Amino acid sequence: MVNFAVSDEQIELRRSVRRFFGEKSGSADVRRAMGSSEGYDEKTWQMMAEQLGLTGLAIPEEYGGSGYGYVELAVVFEEAGAALLCSPLFASVALAANALLESDDDEAKASYLPRIAAGELTATLAFTEDGGRWEPDATTLTAVHAGGEWRLSGHKSFVIDGHTADLILVVGRTDTGLGLFAVAGDATGLERRALPTMDQTRKQARLTFADTPARLVGQARDAAAILERTLDLAAVALAAEATGGAQRCLDLAVQYAKERIQFGRPIGSFQAIKHKCSDMFLEVESARSAAYAAASEAADGSTELAAAASLAKAYCTDAFFNTAAENIQIHGGIGFTWEHDAHLYFKRAKSSQLLLGDPSYHRERVAQLIGI
Known about the structure:
It contains eleven helices and nine strands. The chain is of the alpha+beta class.
């Protein structure tokens, strides 16, 4: 059952996170981070971990986290999306930490999760290959067990923060099915190359594995079930992030519509601009409802998570893209310039649509899940 009530703790969490991101992820900070080779500011990352505890917020206390639920994590990602935060948060928490938590490998959890929670270890999930498909059957990277250890050969593409992650969880094909493997960022036989992408605020990489040593996480045939749940949880986090980005685009558009004077009056007084802002507002509020409904399903461990996650991912990323495009239109000529932040949100919105599968893929998945 979905609960839309907001607790005092969640309100205070939002205030604290919004204040922090306002100070550490302003326009100049974002541009400085996206222009760096790492793609984020290390000091800000450490402050997020040590002062706010964001990296361990939803990790159980037994593994060094705070043990909060997925709704609280959604609050953080919504604010991160609004601030266009450049950091390994999505890769480390929404992807890697969730994959470890969904596995039955207690040893791997104890080894990696406390360091992720402390911000000492950045991590990511390497799933897709050059085709960009998020289906398990698209995996061709091979994992071979010989001489008492696992070795990986193949490649992965579009790996979020893959060029800097200390830990890479790699999906590989074994003789018995799909396996999940932990690879150190400095492992022998691993070559990492940052990819040129439209969205410079979220770095991606292509990884090549040449007989690279790896540690098996869970069982060699169990990764498919782990990945399905992990990607659903990541989709919920991405939906919340997209909602935050959409809200910021709406805020920027409304603010400009009040300030820009044309024919002696604010452009926001013209009916065409009013209609645009009204449509944007409707999309943002609907996106927020979808994102937090899915987050509640995740927090409750509901069997309806898969459908809720795909629905939220499809709707929220579409809403983000639409509001980002309308924000540019309302700003007019200045909205197309490099100096204005409108294009940064537009590019993040487009990349978010494609990440974890595009909206068409998720709508088809919802249809299959509900038997249409």
